[in-house]
Amino acid sequence: MTNQTNSANSTKSFKGKSLAVTIATVLLFAAVLTFAIYEGTKNTVTVTANGEQEQVRTHAETVGAFLEEQDIKPGEHDFVSHSSETAINEDMTLEWDAAEQYAVTVDGEATSAWTTKNTVSEILATANIELTKHDKVTPALDAQVDENTKISVEKAYEVTIQDGLEEKKVWSTSKTVANFLKENKITLGKLDRVETEMDALVLPNSQVKVVRVEKLTDVVEDSVKYAVETKKDETLLKGSEKVVQKGQNGLVEKTYEIVKENGKEVKRNLKNEKIVKEPTKQVTAVGTKTVVASVSRGAQKETIKTASTEKAATPTAAVTTAKATPKATPVKATPAAAEPEPTGGKEFYVSATAYTASCTGCSGITATGINLKTNPGLKVIAVDPSVIPLGSKVWVEGYGNAIAGDTGGAIKGNKIDLFMANRSDALSFGRKQVKVRILN
C-alpha cells in the first residue's frame, strides 16, 4: 500500500516538473521571439562623432530623439549633418562634430571663435574678422591648429616714407620706427639719420623721413688779388699817375669738405689752402710836380712862364665848375681876344664854360697846386687829362694862351673850363664851342 502511494506521488511530481519546464520554455521562447521581433524592427544608424565612427541600432524615429537617446546634446556651434526633425531610416549616416573655442587677438585686443573648422582662415572667417593682403596673421592662414593655439592678427595701415628724395606710401604692421625700416628693407649708412626716434611708435597715416648724408672733398682754384703799391714821383705832375709795374693776380688751391643732405649741400668747411702762384704787386707812380704860372704883359702880347716845385703835401681840392645859361648876346671883348692864333700844335674843338675861384665849395687851389685866389690874373683852364695833359701850354679861341692846370668832376672828354677872376665875366661867358691848340 505504501509502495503504491509513493509511486502515485512520484508520478504527480514528475508531471508538475514537466509543466513548469514547459511553461518556462514557452516563456523563454516568447521572450526570445519578442526580443528578436523588437531587435528586428530597429534601424541601423552609422554615427560619426568627433571623427570616430560607430553603428547604432535604434527605434528612435527622429534625429533629435536619436541624439537624446545617445545622450548627445549638440551645442550652438556644433555641426550636425541632419536637422533634429529628420526621420530615422535604415542604414542612415549621421555626423556630429562638437565645436571648439579658439583664442584670437586683433591688434592686441582679445576675442574668440567657436567653430568645428581647424584652419586659421576658417576660424577667422567664423569670427567675422576681415583681412587685407597686407595684414599680418600668425600662424599662416592655411595652417591647421587646435584649441590651444593662439591666433594673432596685426592689421596693416598706410605710412608715408621719404627715403632721401624718394617718397612713397607703404602698408605696415610695424609698431616702432626701427621695425618699420626693417620691414621695408631700408638700411642706413654711417652718416644717414632718421628724423624720428628709432623706438617711436609708427602711427597710421604718419610719415617717416630718412635723410641721406654724404661727405665729399672738393678742390677749387681761386684768384688772389694783387696788392697795389704807390710811390711818389717828382717828375710827374701832381694828380697824374703812371703804372710802373703791372700787377697780376695769384692762384690759390682750396680744399673743402662738403656735407650734402639728400643731394643738397648744407655745409662747406675749408680744410686746406695751398698757394699755386704768388700774386705780383702793382707799382704805381703818383706825381708830386706842381706848376706855377706867371703872366707878364707887353704892349702887344702876353707870355706864360712855368716853373715846377716839389711840395711835401699839396692841399689840392677839386674846383667846382660854375656854369651859366648861355646867352645870345656876344661876349665882351678882352685884350686876349686880340692875341694872334699861333701856328702848329694839335688843333680841335671843345665845349667851353667858365668858373671862378670863389664858387661854393671851391678852395681856390687847382689840381696842380696853383692858388687862383692869390693869382687872379693867371690864365688857367680845367681839362680832362686824358684829352689835354696837365701842365700843357694851350691856346684857347677868345681866351688866349693858358696853362692846363686844373681838373673838374664834370670836365670829361672834349670839355674845358676857363678860369676867370670876375664872376660876372664867367656868367657872361656861358657855354660855347671854341677852338683850342695844344702847343706842347
TrEMBL record:
Any one GO biological process: peptidoglycan turnover
**What is the protein name given in its UniProt record?**
G5 domain-containing protein
Query: To which species is this protein native?
Result: Planococcus halocryophilus
Annotated region Disordered: the residues are 306-342
Q: Name one Pfam family in it.
A: DUF348
- Transmembrane stretches, by residue range? 19-38
Query: What are the GO MF terms of this UniProt record?
Result: hydrolase activity, hydrolyzing O-glycosyl compounds
Q: Which InterPro entries match?
A: 3D_dom, DUF348, G5_dom, Resuscitation_pf_RpfB, RlpA-like_sf, TonB_box_CS
Domain G5, which positions? 210-290
Question: Which residue windows does the record flag with biased composition (Low complexity)?
Answer: 309-342
Please name the Gene3D superfamilies in this protein's record: Resuscitation-promoting factor rpfb, RlpA-like domain
In the UniProt record, which is one GO cellular component term? outer membrane
Q: Which UniProt keyword terms apply here?
A: Membrane, Signal, Transmembrane, Transmembrane helix
